[in-house]
Amino acid sequence: MNRIAVVGASAAGLAAAETLRREGYHGTLTLVGDEPRTPYDRPPLSKQVLSAEWAPDRVALRAPDELDSLGLDLRLGVAASALDVADRTVRLADGSAVPYDGLVVATGVRPRRLPGEGAHVLRTLDDALTLRERLGPGRRLVVVGAGFLGTEAAAVARRLGARVTLLEPAPVPLAHVVGEEVGRVLSRAHLERGVDLRTGVAVHEVTDDGVRLAGGEEIEADEVLVAIGSLPNVEWLAGSGLTVADGVVCDEYCEAAPGVYAAGDVARWHNPLFGVPMRIEHRTNAAEQGMAAARNLLDPEARKAFAPVPYFWSDQYGMRIQAYGYLRGHDEVRVVEGDLREGRFVAGYRRGKRLVGVLGVGVPPKVLRGWRQAVAVGAG
Fold it and tell me: Is the dihedral of CA 107, 113, 117, 122 positive or negative?
């Protein structure tokens, strides 16, 4: 194998590239990214960058000399436009082509949007810096979507003195992931700090003066942030022959086709530990899957199934939220340590008779790691 291409200069893509070099691959290694920036970390965008606690350059995943040491054919600021699996070629938007013997797809996701113009989204460093310039004491911010991204941004905006209205179509924010009881605990943290949280509200469009709800009511705002989820970046794969369904569909080894692997937010793979296909949009998974895909690509005879216990975290008002496992689709939630009312607890999530996830709020990491092991072994 003399030519490997990694499409997506993301955390997953960088992890794949570094792993290939670390595992002894010395051939041509092309890293393609649609942004002009070198790979950077996204979780701080809605927290430390938005709050201006971090300078923009702090989110860089590697220093320039570290990237140079990888000997990359680095193609930044140009998106992939097509994939020809038969010809083993990635075509780029600037008209050039990248031939490959092996390929890792790590093109990530992009934000969903609402009809209308002028709303912010929060995916890139430029997105975060632009919104940060518009926030401050007395500024009115409407956040559409009370998922983790929306609630993190709302928490930062309140700390900056903005007046925040948080709109969510579900009766309880995040209930589909963490359950209603835990969702109410997280909601209460926002209500206690003056966020105008409105649930059961559908937003029809963004207007020049704010947003218009499905029933016609208008909510005025100086700025609008839309945080209603994301879409996998797979359009460039049309006609490639890869199976695309809410991401690039892969087997348990992260392989989508012979010699083609996927990793990170764009990959939908079968996780044998839980026995279900999943697509995980969390930073830890991106790095781990990038490494796994690279190893399996480089040595198919020794490849291993990618079977992680997914991990994610969120910081809101100094409240640390951490979770292990796959919480979606759970049948039961039960507090196994602490007390919901005190805001310090561990909740366990079951599907059938199996523990499939745990979530902790305000507890030390070592407490949660013990429960992680129970999830890993499929405890009943």
Answer: negative
Cα separations (Å) of 343 from 78, 196, 318, 335, 361? 46, 20, 12, 12, 7
Q: Is 53 helix (H, G, I), strand (E, B) or coil?
A: coil
pLDDT for 324 beyond 90: yes
Rounded to whole angstroms, the Cα distance separating 11 from 15 reads 6
Widest distance between CA atoms in the chain:
61
Sheet holding 163-168, edge to edge: 196-199, 163-168, 140-144, 223-226
Length of the chain in terms of residues written: 380
Closest CA to 348 of 364, 367, 361, 335: 335
- Model confidence pLDDT, tens digit, residues 12-43: 999 999 999 999 999 999 999 999 999 999 99
Contact 241, 248 (CB under 8 A): no
Q: Return d(Cα 118, Cα 121) in angstroms, integer.
A: 10
Q: Which residues of 136-163 are buried (b: 16+ CB within 10 A; e: fewer)?
A: eeebbbbbbbbbbbbbbbbbbbbebebb
The residue written with tokens 């340590």 in the block is 337
